[in-house]
Each structure stands twice: as structure tokens, then as C-alpha cells.
From TrEMBL:
<keyword id="KW-0472">Membrane</keyword>
<dbReference type="GO" id="GO:0009306">
    <property type="term" value="P:protein secretion"/>
</dbReference>
<dbReference type="InterPro" id="IPR008564">
    <property type="entry name" value="TVP23-like"/>
</dbReference>
<dbReference type="GO" id="GO:0016192">
    <property type="term" value="P:vesicle-mediated transport"/>
</dbReference>
<keyword id="KW-0812">Transmembrane</keyword>
<feature type="transmembrane region" description="Helical">
    <location>
        <begin position="56"/>
        <end position="76"/>
    </location>
</feature>
<protein>
    <recommendedName>
        <fullName>Golgi apparatus membrane protein TVP23 homolog</fullName>
    </recommendedName>
</protein>
<comment type="similarity">
    <text>Belongs to the TVP23 family.</text>
</comment>
<keyword id="KW-1133">Transmembrane helix</keyword>
<dbReference type="Pfam" id="PF05832">
    <property type="entry name" value="DUF846"/>
</dbReference>
<dbReference type="GO" id="GO:0000139">
    <property type="term" value="C:Golgi membrane"/>
</dbReference>
<feature type="transmembrane region" description="Helical">
    <location>
        <begin position="31"/>
        <end position="50"/>
    </location>
</feature>
<feature type="transmembrane region" description="Helical">
    <location>
        <begin position="150"/>
        <end position="169"/>
    </location>
</feature>
<feature type="transmembrane region" description="Helical">
    <location>
        <begin position="123"/>
        <end position="144"/>
    </location>
</feature>
């Protein structure tokens, strides 16, 4: 039985609480991670666009693109997300066969500072959101132009990069259960305010 609503929030990175506390927010503190965050996914897009010009071998192009997409999926999921924005996610299945979404988030330091810079955060989210959208455009283009042989490659790009996007959005905003409780609490407070305002007007 698969249950995607069972979510565990895990706070790790205790050793990283005070890392780079004195650095400026605009400074890129992990240039290698920032480079490879964009390198694999941008390279896959470039190879897809220029493949027919570079070689006539579809198999070579397909293998190259899938390798780049696979490297990108692993790097973003396990390395760049942790270093650049302090987030990491994965899905695990317990002994009962139930699926659990597990999220890691770097703890905020005691002084309220962030250990990730704003520049790295912009690079991370820009690359994470933009590239899957490009692959979706490629998917519609391949579908409408009847490029059936490229459709599988494009779908692989959508799935791999879309999975990372979905996981990090869930990791960023929290579970649906948490969002529901927040909305319920907000509506309850608004209802209480309106009730008290009505009673004050009636008393006056």
C-alpha cells in the first residue's frame, strides 16, 4: 500500500549550523556545486538542440542525454540542494510497504542567520524551475512534429527534472497536512475576530 501522505520532517546538518555565518549573503560560497547544478541540465538541453547537427547517430545522442540527465538528477537531489539551499529529500518504503516522504532541512543558527547565500538560492531555484519547463516545451514540440523517436528522451528529461522540482517544492513548503492545518488555523482566527467584532458592535 502506497501512502504519499505519510511524511517525516528530519532536521540534520547539526555540524553545519555555524558554517559560513560571517559570509555575505550575495557571495557564492559553493562555486563548484553551483557550476554543476547548471552544467548537467544545461548540457543535456544543448546536446538535444544540437544533436542532429553534431552527429547522425540517434543512439549516441540518446545515451549522452540520458547520462547527463541521470548525473543531474543525482547531483541535484543529493549534493547541490544540500549545499546551496540546505534542503534534501527522498522517498523510502518501510517494512509494511508504505511509502514515506522524508525531508532534511539545515537548521537556522541561534542568531537567526542563514548558512546559504541569496545568490546560490537564486541560482538553485532558477535552474530547478526553468529547465523542466524547457523539457515540457520540447515534449509538446516532439509530439506535434511527430518526432516519435525523440519523445522517449524528452519524457525522460521531464520525469527526472520534474521529480527533483516536485521533491524540493514539497520540501520547501511542507506537507499538504501542514498546509491544511495552517489554513484551518488561519480561518479559525479570522472567524474568531469577526465574532468578537460583531459582539463589540452589538454591545455598543
Amino acid at each position: 500500500q502506497d501512502s504519499s501522505d505519510d511524511i517525516e520532517d528530519v532536521s540534520l546538518f547539526d555540524a553545519d549550523d555555524d558554517v559560513s555565518r560571517r559570509s555575505k549573503k550575495s557571495k557564492i560560497r559553493h562555486p563548484v556545486a553551483s557550476f554543476f547544478h547548471l552544467f548537467f541540465r544545461v548540457s543535456a538541453i544543448i546536446v538535444y538542440l544540437l544533436c542532429e547537427l553534431l552527429t547522425s547517430s540517434f543512439i549516441a545522442c540518446m545515451v549522452t542525454i540520458i547520462l547527463l540527465l541521470s548525473c543531474d538528477f543525482w547531483a541535484v537531489k543529493n549534493v547541490t540542494g544540500r549545499l546551496m539551499v540546505g534542503l534534501r529529500w527522498w522517498n523510502q518504503v518501510d517494512d509494511d510497504g508504505r511509502s514515506h516522504w522524508v525531508f532534511e532541512a539545515r537548521k537556522v543558527s541561534a542568531q537567526g542567520g542563514k548558512s546559504s547565500s541569496e545568490a546560490e538560492s537564486r541560482i538553485f531555484w532558477l535552474g530547478l524551475i526553468t529547465c523542466p519547463m524547457i523539457w515540457v516545451i520540447f515534449a509538446f514540440s516532439a509530439l506535434f512534429s511527430f518526432k516519435v523517436k525523440w519523445l522517449a528522451v524528452v519524457v525522460m528529461g521531464v520525469v527526472l527534472q520534474g521529480a527533483n522540482l516536485y521533491g524540493y517544492i514539497r520540501c520547501k513548503v511542507g506537507s499538504r497536512r501542514n498546509l491544511t492545518s495552517m489554513a484551518t488555523s488561519y480561518l479559525g482566527k479570522q472567524f474568531l475576530r469577526q465574532t468578537m467584532a460583531t459582539e463589540d458592535q452589538a454591545a455598543s
